[in-house]
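Margin note: ligand = beta-L-fucopyranose.
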Amino acid sequence: MHRRTFLRAGAAALGLSALDASSAWAGWLGAGARAVPSPRQLAWQRAGLGLFVHFGVNTFTDREWGDGTEDPRIFNPTRLDARQWARAARAGGFRTMILTAKHHDGFCLWPSRYTGHSVKNSPWKNGQGDVVREFTEAAHAEGLGVGLYLSPWDRHEPSYGTPAYNDHYVAQLTELLTGYGPLTEIWFDGANGEGPNGKHQEYDWPRFHRTIRALQPGALIFSDAGPDIRWIGNEKGIAGDPDWCAVDPTVVPRPGMSGPEVTRSLQHGNPHGTVWRPGEADVSIRPGWFWHADQDDEVRSADDLLGLYFSSVGRNANLLLNVPPTTEGLFHPTDVERLAEFGERRRRLFSADLASAARASASASDGRARGPQRVVDGDPDSYWSPPGGATTGWVELDLGRPVTFDVVSLREAIAHGQSVEGYTVQGWTGSRWATLSRGTTIGNHKLDRVPPTTASRVRLSVESSLGTPRITGLALHEG
Ligand code: FUL
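Resulting structure:
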């Protein structure tokens, strides 16, 4: 349905030329040093889950991509309630919501001063409404972070394809950055087609980024190429394996590059990358990004959503799950139910850590402060490390009794970077060590489904690591 991969190549090219011009973002580490997250990236990675909300004229035209010629009078949600969206997000355990303030059709969900193609010319609330305001207030009221998507590609705006469009875009961005309180993420879509005049736009990315840094220094910037968060390379919610948080800024993506090498870089990152750009996996709960009545019975099941969680969050990426409001301006009851079930499934699965009372030992440790007990103390900042900068070693949990589990959860203390590139998990089943899983990278979070196993001891062996491994979490779950 999406021409995104093709279109992204062009946008990506523009994205990177901007980054090249911005050394502040392109390489804030000294030569030879390993990439580490900024505090805001770290907080974002620990949050893990975001909810995407695609809403706009497409909701009313039953389309995925509007062409900018829509009559604003078609936008008329009958019962819009952003609190309902935010409550559903919270019930699902989401930490942030991101709204399409403007999609490719150029229709603005807030009364922008810079275009007539907006809610102000719709019958909704007699043109006095502001969806972005209702959305941000609802999210804040439910304790959620707020992100906004402002499509660079605008199929309505006449100045598109000329330098004047960059002024227009910055003016709209500024309205969003200054009018709605603190924002946590700005989402730049990679799709870049033609404007109403048949022209392509040269986006002024450094200026867009500077505007965000100046007006919302706490907000993270997502785009294909970063500078804070990279796209994971597909819209299926599947991160690569391995998945490194670091990337090589000369490869992800380079001007003019597209195809398998770019996709590989986005999916897997780069173990020797010099900049930290963790991946975000965006995917919709339905076949489309926008609501279509004929997809009401194609909403992903809780099982399916849990699978997405394992293939994204469980592979060191964040998950951005889209849930589109209907023409009423509400999440459909089926979607609400699935979000709640998804939250409940995760709570059931992860609330009990069957290893939390274990006694830990290790091949060797880098002093008491880096002792093996750190992997079960629940503190994401404490960790076990082998001594003397060693790159291999093992840590073992004595569970005190046979315990049955089928999920192993591993975490590295990524504040110091990401190191592990090969590991094995084994369980002592009473007579032998059975290999339960083998993996490549761990990073912020790695979740391995293993065959249902009853074991009294569990061992994580780090077999290969770029630097000394720092393991902060080894947990066991059943579900
Ligand atoms: C794509 C867009 O073209 C889709 O409509 C959607 O917004 C998705 C998240 O990104 O590039």
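The pocket of beta-L-fucopyranose is lined by residues 2, 4, 64, 189-191, 282, 289 (CB under 6 Å).
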